[in-house]
Design brief:
single chain
Length: 121
């Protein structure tokens, strides 16, 4: 019926007769950097706190050990930067995917406003 979600959204907006203002696109690079810094920083902080207080976050780190090889409560100080790098990469990929998906779904074709202020296709 519809070739994409964007086509379905455009058809719905046309049938409702509601005009939309140009849509601001999310920066894929910006959200990737923010996600990487946030998740990598969280894993770094939890790893450091676990080294200072060994009972802190142990269950959480055990779960992460099943996802990120070489990271967990039992890896010692060596595992702290390993977890931060894993978290930064994982958060960057997740942030980029969220921004890309949002840009693909949120705006119908021809209404994305870029940094220059002009609507582009």
């Amino acid at each position: 019926m519809f070739a994409s979600i964007r086509d379905a959204r455009t058809a719905l907006e046309r049938s409702s007769g509601v005009a939309r203002a140009p849509h601001r696109a999310l920066s894929v690079w910006g959200l990737a950097c923010a996600g990487g810094l946030l998740w990598g920083g969280c894993l770094l902080l939890i790893g450091i706190l676990n080294r200072v207080w060994p009972s802190y976050g142990t269950a959480f780190l055990d779960v992460l050990r099943s996802v990120y090889p070489g990271y967990g409560a039992a890896t010692g100080w060596v595992g702290v930067p390993i977890g931060a790098v894993y978290g930064a990469l994982d958060g960057a990929v997740a942030g980029a995917l969220v921004a890309w998906l949002y840009n693909a779904v949120a705006a119908p074709a021809g209404t994305i406003e870029r940094d220059g202020g002009e609507a582009t296709t």
